[in-house]
Amino acid sequence: MTHHPRLADAARAGAPLAWAALPLVFFAVFFALPVGTMVARGLLPDGQLDLGALTDVLGRGRTQRVLGFTVGMAAVGTALTVALGLPAAFVLHRLAFPGRGLARAWVVMPFVMPTVVVGVMFRSLLSVNGPLGFLGWDGTPMAIGAAFVFFNLAVVVRTVGGAWARLDPRPAEAAASLGASPWRVLLDITLPRLAPAVLGSAVVVFLFCATAFGVVLTLGGLQHRTIETEIYLLTTQYLDLRAAAVLSVLQVVVVALLVWVSSRMRGTGPAGAATSAGARPRPVRRADLPAVAATLAVLAFVTAPVVALVVRSLQVPTTEGTRWSLQNYRALGDPEAARAAALQTTVVEALESSWRIAVDATVLSLLLGLLVAIALTRPRRTPAAARVVRGLDLLFMLPLGVSAVTVGFGFLIALDEPPLDLRSHPLLIPVAQALVAVPLVVRTLVPVLGGIDDRQRQAAASLGAPPWRQLLTVDARLAARPVAAAAGFALAVSLGEFGATSFLARPEQPTVPVVIAQLVGRPGADGFGMALAASVLLAAVTVVVMGVVERLAPDVGGSW
């Protein structure tokens, strides 16, 4: 029996879709449907497309100011992050010194820190009573920009540092042997070969800055608004779904473009770098001292907000000033303190809820992320299969940049009727958090699974192993530790998710980020003291989780 070549090619092209079938259904129900419903409510008010809404909303002075502020802050945050991240990437990945692993873990730590906690950190550092209150940055764009850099340094350090560690050192060594200075080698040899990694990380940082929610809401309030916080205000306070839908559509288009550019950057590596094992870290030389000094400044910058948060959480105001006390921490489990702060549950109970929800989200995101990563890394034997894989890669990265507010509110208006009446279902919050975590799981696992030599699978197949057996004996064995690390990433991210959860969490069962935002938004020193202590508690949990991740797979995350 003979098979038609086109049918065979179609079958090979559809193989990635078979692996991604379950994630695609999940994506359609819990991402495309809520976002599409939210957009339709605004742009299809009477069942017909109203394109006039686009020009009307985008022509408003308020919208233009929001767009300008969003792009400007994202551009400044990206430039500063790349400028500080490059020397740190070199020192932490190419130089050998005591404590290098701890320093790398410390720089990565802010990336998984809950955004609300980051906002509270910088408020404790920059407020009038904070260590840097004299700068007058509290509630200004400078505070937001500093928080952007703090949060996103890990992206540049890990992405560029991972590429730097894999660079073949021989071209640089040859240039140095011919008399080129270290700066000439850096500018003419190294940086051009690192350009795809640098540009790719810059695109990701810009994306995260432009779609930040918790940081901007905590530090900028209602005075300094980005697209993300503007969608929140339009949805919750002004009930202007039309304007919110227009901004959501704009955000989806821009995010899709940035994700596509980032994907292209990841696929464009320097010649010889992708297959080279790179050079072993070398001792520090005299020429490295400027980069070492810049890295020490980065470590100090990352440390300052953390120290300020911990110190201020241990202080309580008195008539004479402040005194050291554990009062803020004791209040976390005190029902009386919770009621005084207008909370329906204690912070400790909220942490228990956060942990249960995050575990559920982690299991779900790990299952879906594994299937997507397998789909993206299967051998692409036809151009059609390669196009399918690129499309899937773009599709499953979209939740990273689409407004969590849009997703959360979309859940409420799209999943409120049978057979999808899920608004009160306890799994809805884990589902929302899994949407955010799946892209990170995929980005963690794709380099690992993609780096497995297909000849090992072929050898297993030649011995009679079916595809599922090949997956277990080859892929699962080599990817076990990165899978565990991906689970840690998902757990940390889920613990800190705030945007969608703020819509979906019930008052009697909130998560810790929602409680922190409520405490920060209420007047009174006691509420803010509890917010400080709760932030320390949540930050400690995420740092412990990330410490385990770093021990399991210290090089994961290099493809962010």
TrEMBL record:
Keyword Cell inner membrane: yes
GO biological process: transmembrane transport
Localization of this protein: Cell inner membrane; Cell membrane
Chain segments annotated as transmembrane: 21-44, 66-90, 102-122, 142-161, 194-221, 241-261, 289-311, 357-376, 388-415, 427-449, 528-549
Annotated InterPro entries: MetI-like, MetI-like_sf
Keyword Transport attributed: yes
Cellular-component GO terms for this entry: plasma membrane
Residue stretches making up the ABC transmembrane type-1 domain: 67-259, 351-549
Membrane topology: Multi-pass membrane protein
Record key words, sorted: Cell inner membrane, Cell membrane, Membrane, Transmembrane, Transmembrane helix, Transport
PANTHER family assigned to the protein according to its UniProt record, in alphabetical order: INNER MEMBRANE ABC TRANSPORTER PERMEASE PROTEIN YDCV (PTHR43357)
Family classification: Belongs to the binding-protein-dependent transport system permease family.
Name this protein carries in UniProt: Thiamine transport system permease protein
Protein source organism: Kytococcus aerolatus
Source species taxonomy: Bacteria, Bacillati, Actinomycetota, Actinomycetes, Micrococcales
